[in-house]
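Side project, low priority. Logging it here so it doesn't get lost.
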Amino acid sequence: MGFRLRHNQRVSAQWHAGQDHAARERRLAEILGRRFVEQSLHLEHEGAGLRLWGWIAQPTFSRAQPDLQYFYVNGRVVRDRVLTHAVRQAYEDVLYHGRHPAYVLYLGLDPAGVDVNVHPSKQEVRFRDARLVHDFLFHTLKQAIAQLRPEEAPNLAEHPAQGGLALGAAVAEQVAVYGAMGQAAREMAQDAAQDPAPVPDESVPVLGYALAQLHGIYVLAQNARGLVVVDMHAAHERITYERLKAGLDAGGLASQPLLVPVTLEVSRAEAEEAERHGERFAALGFEIDRLGPDKLVIRRLPALLHGADVQALVRDVLADLMEHGESRRIQEALNGVLSTMACHGSVRANRRLGLDEMNALLRDMERTERAGQCNHGRPTWVQLSVDQLDKLFMRGQ
């Protein structure tokens, strides 16, 4: 379908129908800008009677305000709290400091599963199974974002950023890991350093091979495209954080009893919600009992959250469950603790690394989910192509 906008009998804008993927991306570029298309990931996924497709922007293309967010349900543009909440949670581990994701997404489902007559403007909808829709959207987008590796990340030099381990031993293991590389990897690193300008080879790893360390902060590496610059602390922080999370998931949550159980006054509806989701709280390390119609008692909590404001956390979780049927508050609090541990356990500035250690860091980045950003939302690496370097020195002009 094409659109034509007239003002005072004059055509002020016109968009042609997008018959294929390339045409649809051209239309997106005309409306939202070329950078949105260049920094977006196209996705399509079906399951549980739902179909989601569209474009989600890389975390490095975050916005200061939610001005590039478009969601369509069965072809109708909507603004829905369940959908917005699910998208926001999917980006929780890569967006910080109040930044907002950008996206154009289309959700298709049985028309009987959605009520479009909630509001006269038709922009608000009500889903028959809001929990199913929320979980489908959250897990689909979170998996898509998690699969982004350095080989799929945008050229940050051209588009600057806007904005199974045992848990107890993970930090110590990560601090030492980059000193334990095999002889074969050392030889590859030495070859890369001895031959600083090989013919581009697509078999070279995405982040290439290390050449040197700059000011004890940056790792300089050469790949098939040109020069890669890595912030070693930021990169190692993300790697350590992801390994800590994996270790936590594999080993389960250790919980501890409270010396003095905490009593919580709540509404009757909140008490019923806590009782209904007792197994979910237990899986996250909490033991919460109902003492009366409007009273709860917290007897155990995750060991990692010792010292946290447990009453406020439980209240926030119950509010999320009542409004969205889902809550990530506890997981976010746990991730915050792991993020701090990862920061303290990562290589620090001015630590001298050998070529083998730098190359091990590059290989780990290529294997790690969300490796393009550190735990605080900063980019971990940039790519400078040979053409860009030539322009800096006016070669060929």
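Brief comment: Confidence is low (pLDDT under 50) at residues 152-189, 195-200.
Revisit when time allows.
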